[in-house]
Amino acid sequence: MILALGLFLCVLLGTHGFNTQHSIEPQADFDLEKFTGEWYRLGVADESNTFAMLKHHLKVSKGLLVADASGNVNLTMWTMRPNGCSISVNSYEKTDVPGAFTYFSKRHKIIKDITMVETNYTDYSLVLKYKSMDKEYTQIALYARTPTPTLEVIQKFISFALTLGFSEGAIMVPADIDHCPNLESRSTAEFREEKSAQTTNQSIFGTVSNV
Ligand SMILES: *[C@@H]1O[C@H](CO)[C@@H](O)[C@H](O)[C@H]1NC(C)=O
Ligand SMILES: *[C@@H]1O[C@H](CO)[C@@H](O)[C@H](O)[C@H]1NC(C)=O
Ligand SMILES: *[C@@H]1O[C@H](CO)[C@@H](O)[C@H](O)[C@H]1NC(C)=O
């Protein structure tokens, strides 16, 4: 009985807990125009079981952030699939706070917030998804303007993730670079078809890959 209780406590203590002391706000004077353009996602911190299963497949992938005149943005991300490059587009709606957006997560069927926590526009950005800190929903991504990270930027990302209470195992900084989009002359319509033809597993991974 005592042994059983001991094991149970170990399991409980082994579970992870987010640090919810911090109130996380977007970077002051966030400048959307300077933030738009190409970004490479160099790291992801995610405590969910789905991510734990798929994280070793994660690669550095390319994204393009486009804003419209009203301040809403679309983030297009490219991912290599067994049958070629596929794209996914997430539409983030602006809020009253510059640097804070919302979007509807197709995977979790809820509205999530996006916070542009820190950026210097020319090199890196730290983006937090779902700041209420939930193991299944919360994710941090590190983006940079080039696919090759500097140690300084990686360290910034890792220490931010640890400060929020992510466990080391939930923080991934992939070494491989995804070769999408490549220079094959294939149309966007074809990419979209491939996307809708993905298996469940691939589309789960697609969602994990998108921030
Ligand atoms: C985002 O994409 C949607 C669907 O293609 C489009 O209607 C919308 O205008 C785009 N928004 C921006 C900010 O580019
Ligand atoms: C942006 O951040 C990187 C990494 O911290 C740094 O090397 C670079 O000098 C910064 N650029 C500007 C314009 O502050
Ligand atoms: C889904 O992905 C996981 C992890 O890569 C793998 O173990 C599993 O076999 C895959 N399932 C299917 C149906 O492809």
Automatic annotation (TrEMBL):
Q: Keywords, A to Z?
A: Signal
UniProt signal peptide: 1-17
List, alphabetically, the InterPro entries matched: Calycin (IPR012674), Lipocalin (IPR002345), Lipocalin_CS (IPR022272), Lipocln_cytosolic_FA-bd_dom (IPR000566)
According to the entry, every stretch annotated as the Lipocalin/cytosolic fatty-acid binding domain falls at 36-173
Asked if the record carries the keyword Signal, the reply is yes
The UniProt entry, under Pfam families, shows: Lipocalin
- Which Gene Ontology MF annotations are present? small molecule binding
| Signal keyword on record | yes
Entry's family note: Belongs to the calycin superfamily. Lipocalin family.
Mind telling me what this protein is named? Lipocalin/cytosolic fatty-acid binding domain-containing protein
Q: Which organism is it from?
A: Triplophysa tibetana
